[in-house]
Amino acid sequence: MQEELGQAQVEGTSGGGVVKVTVNGQLKVLAVKISPEAVSAGDAEMLEDLVLSAISDAMTKAQEMAQSRLGALTGGLKIPGIM
C-alpha cells in the first residue's frame, strides 16, 4: 500500500491555476509550477501566499486519497493514528 501511495499523485492549485503543486500519496511535494504572470506581478508576498495555498490544497487532496484507499483496504475500519 505504501508503494501504491508513493506512486499516486494529486495536484493542488491556487489563484485560479496560477500556482500548481503536485504531491504524492505519501505527502511528498513532487513539483511546483508557477505561471509567468504570477512572477511578473512582482508581489512576492502574494506569490508566497499562492504557493502556500496550493500546497495546502494538494496535501488535503493527498490525505483524502490516502484515507479513501486505506478505507477500501480496511473495509472502512478507522485505525487510530492514521489520518
Strand and helix layout:
Blueprint: H1 2-7, E1 9-14, E2 19-24, E3 29-34, H2 36-40, H3 44-74
Antiparallel strand pairs: 1-2, 2-3
Which regions contain 5 or more consecutive residues with pLDDT less than 50? none
**Tertiary shape:** elongated
Supply the helix-strand structural class.
alpha+beta
Q: Approximately how much beta-strand content do the residues carry?
A: 15-25%
CATH arch. level architecture: 2-Layer Sandwich
The CATH top-level class label: Alpha Beta
How large, in whole angstroms, is the Cα Rg?
Answer: 15 Å
Number of domains: 1
- H-E string: HEEEHH
Sheet with the most strands: spatial strand order: 1-2-3
| Major beta sheet summary | 3 strands, antiparallel
Count of individual helical segments: 3
Task: Determine the CATH topology.
Answer: Ybab, Chain: A
End-to-end distance, in Å?
A: 15 Å
| Arithmetic mean of pLDDT | 85
Q: How much helix is in the residues? A: 40-55%
- In CATH, what is the homologous superfamily? Nucleoid-associated protein YbaB-like domain
List keywords for this structure.
single chain; 83 residues; alpha+beta; Ybab, Chain: A; three-stranded antiparallel beta sheet; 3 helices; 22% strand; elongated
Report on this structure.
This protein has 83 residues and is α+β, with helices and mostly antiparallel strands. The protein has helices spanning 2-7, 36-40, 44-74; strands at 9-14, 19-24, 29-34. It has a three-stranded antiparallel beta sheet. The mean pLDDT is 85.
